[in-house]
Amino acid sequence: MAAITNQELITILGDKFGDKIVNVSEPYGLLTFETSKDVIISVLTFLKESRNTDFNFLTDITAVHYPEKKHGIAVVYHLHSMVKRVRVRIKVFIDEHHPHIPTATVLWNGANWMERETYDLFGVKFDGHPDLRRILNMDELGVHPMLKQYPLEDPNRVDKKDEYFGR
Amino acid sequence: MSDINIVDAPPGIEGSGFFATSLDKVIGLARSHSLWPLPFATSCCGIEFMATMGSHYDLGRFGSERLSFSPRQADLLMVMGTIAKKMSPVLKQVYLQMAEPRWVMAVGACASSGGIFDTYSVLQGIDEIIPVDVYVPGCPPRPEAILDGFGKIQELVRNESSRRRDSAQYQEMLASYGIL
């Protein structure tokens, strides 16, 4: 089966979704583009089910927090077409005060735990997820610790106080 | 042929045909040389403990040949490794299942203070949830250090009053951890 190039891929996507596909770039040769949350599931469905693309494997779902941006949370999808020997990265920027996005568990069962992790660490609510609860942190944590307003360090730590270092 | 070592008798009154000493000392002597440790090993300190149990260092020399993998028969809880906050209820449950008298040893920097993991997901020392008798420093500590810490536990066991666990002070200390 012939491989597909990034250029062909972006043409296919452009024909299908038009101006919903924006900010296309190829850092280190990995095709990257942004789309919006109203079409993300259609884009993923198309990439998975079209015989021209055959993205059969969901590598990862994660997020990035940009506190300075208007839509401060980027949900990032990594897909891999084992058939066409190509990978792609898709970003969706959503409002950090209203972090909702439809679930990808309708396409890949593997998305279940990835979305739970993203919910746990960033507080992204995946609408339609069958069991959206924390997966790594303890249930009583109360915050989504990868959001930048929360400190990395534990407040109970006593041996790093400034007075011990003459500060 | 190797020499057989027998522990020295505790101080007491000796005469022809009798030896008298206090019950505390006899019990302490016996207990300190037959501690059953429960290894709660979660990371690299646990690997050092495996070396400590191995033939070269041989914790069995000190009367702890028999590890207890059930907390109900264990005397000494050895916590070796990073304890994530999500695991802290499990560790506390293990401690609660141990019968009195019980001792706890925090082996390594992580169990003692959180170590390098100064982060939201890691318990900053197991003494936030259970009382600790002996801390062993190191990252990870060498087997010699673990044996030294074990020796310190034996010393505590040998010299403990049989009424200590009933004292108001001890009950207060447990209550401060929410253990009754």
Structure description:
Chain A is 20% helix and 25% strand. The relative contact order of chain A is 0.14. With 167 residues, chain A is α/β, with parallel strands linked by helices. In chain A, strands 1-2-5-4-3 form a 5-stranded mixed β-sheet. Chain A has a two-stranded parallel sheet with strand order 6-7. Chain A has helices at residues 6-17, 40-49, 111-122, and strands spanning 22-25, 31-35, 57-65, 73-81, 86-94, 100-102, 125-127. The mean pLDDT of chain A is 92. Chain A has a single domain (6-149), classed as NADH:ubiquinone oxidoreductase Nqo5 subunit (Beta Polymerase, domain 2, 2-Layer Sandwich), CATH 3.30.460.80. The longest helix of chain A has 12 residues, at 6-17. The termini of chain A are far apart. Chain B has 180 residues and is an alpha/beta fold. Chain B has a single domain (22-158), classed as Rossmann fold. Helices cover 34% and strands 13% of the residues of chain B. Chain B has helices spanning 23-32, 44-53, 88-97, 108-113, 143-159, 168-176, and strands at residues 13-15, 18-20, 37-41, 76-80, 103-107, 134-136. In chain B, the strands form 2 sheets. Chain B has a 4-stranded parallel β-sheet with strand order 3-4-5-6. The radius of gyration of chain B is 18 Å and the shape is globular. The N and C termini of chain B lie far apart (51 Å). The mean pLDDT of chain B is 93. The chains are: A alpha/beta (167), B alpha/beta (180). At the A-B interface, loops of A face loops of B.
The end-to-end distance of chain B, rounded to whole angstroms, is: 51 Å
DSSP summary, beta strand count of chain B: 6
> CATH class of chain B, anyone?
Alpha Beta
Total DSSP helices of chain A:
3
Overall average residue pLDDT of chain B: 93
**Low-pLDDT runs of chain A:** none
Indicate the overall shape of chain A: elongated
Major sheet summary line of chain B: 4 strands, parallel
State the name of the first-level CATH class of chain A: Alpha Beta
Number of helices of chain B: 6
Compute the CA-based radius of gyration of chain B. Answer: 18 Å
* Derived structural class of chain B: alpha/beta
CATH architecture of chain A: 2-Layer Sandwich
Order of helices and strands of chain B: EEHEHEHEHEHH
Q: Given the helix and strand composition of chain A, which structural class is it? A: alpha/beta
Average pLDDT for all residues of chain A: 92
